[in-house]
Structures are given as C-alpha cells and as structure tokens.
Amino acid sequence: MKELSLVLSLCLLFALGATTNVQASNDIQKVVVLAKKKTVKFKVYGNCGMCKNTIENALKGVKGISWSTWNTETKMITVRYNPKKIKLEDIHKKIAAVGYDTEKAKAKDEVYNNLHGCCQYDRPTKK
Ligand SMILES: [Cu+2]
Asked: CATH assignment of 37-119?
C-alpha cells in the first residue's frame, strides 16, 4: 500500500511538473496544431514514376499541404493537409491542373495530351 501511494504521488508530481513546464506547453501546442491536420487518401489516375513526380510536385509547397505520396501500384494518393488552409476539393483541382484525373476533378484534355506518352494513362470513363 505504501508503495502504491508513493507511485501515485510520483505520478501526480510528474503531471503537475508537466503542465507547468514551458517545454511541455509548447508540446501541447504542437499537438493542437497536429490535431488540425488531416490525412486523406483518394484515387489519382496515372501510370508510372514520372506521373508520381508530376502529381507529388503539384502539391509540393502548396499552402496547407504538409506532404503527399502517390503509390504507382495502387494509384492512391495520401495527402497530409490542414483543412483550415486548403479545401480537399482544391487539392483535387491542383492535381487535375497538371493533367491527372482524380475521383473528383478532371484534367483538361489539352493538359492530358501534353503528358509524356508513357504517362497517358487510361482515363476513367464518364459516369
Ligand atoms: Cu507516367
């Protein structure tokens, strides 16, 4: 029993210490910022590693987007973003702007036609 209460008071001390510690409050703020971010996964039509570069570069440096990665096998993109800074719809549009159809946005024909021959993926049929 004595040991248990010792452990409990140690825990309490740690908890108090943590909340009054400046570093800890910075960490809490970081967690809050992280909590605002979302990770989404959706389909982006494409073929190869060159497509991967084009798709990922389209989202690189875009405000509100932390990172993205497109899988050449599954054709799925994973995007980490802050919904307060960029709308999911706009992420789809950014990808379509460089020639790649997504579940929600369609690339312009002329942009698609300018893609490298090996990158001209089979376009999804219209619904
Ligand atoms: Cu390609």
From this structure: 3.30.70.100
Ligand 1 midpoint to CA 103 (Å): 18
For ligand 1, a single-atom ion, the residues with CB < 5 A are 47-48, 50-51, 119
* Tens digits of residue pLDDT in 29-68: 777 766 789 999 999 999 999 999 999 999 999 999 999 9
CA of residue 120 to ligand 1 center, whole Å: 7
97 pLDDT above the threshold of 70: yes
Q: Where are the chain's structural domains? A: 2-32, 37-119
What would the mean pLDDT of 58-85 be, rounded to a whole number?
Answer: 98
Cα 58 from Cα 24, distance rounded (Å): 36
Report the C-alpha gap between 91 and 67 in whole angstroms: 12
| CA 20–ligand 1 middle distance (angstroms) | 53
Phi, psi for 86 (deg, rounded to 5):
-145, 140
d(CA 121, CA 76) in angstroms, rounded, equals 14
Global confidence as pTM: 0.74
